[in-house]
Amino acid sequence: MTVALWCILIAIFLPYLCTAVAKIGGGYRLRDNHDPRSFALTLDGFAKRAHAAQLNSFEITPAFAAAVIVAHLAGNAELVTINVLSVLFITSRLLYIICYLADWAILRSLVWFVGVGLIISFFFVSI
């Protein structure tokens, strides 16, 4: 398994890190597990931003996974390049989550664009 493929696994689980932060920050109790989606609607502040970061992480992960797989299948990009782009993407996602939790909206948006740019990069290096 390549580093890039391991990064897909990491990207799959990053949203759940945000879930844990949202639940802990929102005062989640096990009894709330009967209807966790309604609980998410009650969140505000830090916990609400953690939930939003979770949703965004779920949204972007399929694009990242597809880009890594396409880069592997195309066979034109060097493996080290694919691995570096993948690690940079995971780093951008961690920074994105930090920016979201800290409520640094402009920086968060910039980091999001970096992540999307990295996804696009996989296709260009595969040409």
Automatic annotation (TrEMBL):
Its main location: membrane. Keywords: Membrane, Transmembrane, Transmembrane helix. It comes from the Bacteria. The chain crosses the membrane at residues 80-102, 109-126. It holds the Pfam family MAPEG. GO terms for cellular component: membrane. InterPro entries: MAPEG-like_dom_sf (IPR023352), Membr-assoc_MAPEG (IPR001129). It is found in: Membrane. The keyword Transmembrane helix applies. PANTHER family: BLR7753 PROTEIN, INNER MEMBRANE PROTEIN. This is MAPEG family protein. It comes from Pseudomonas kielensis.
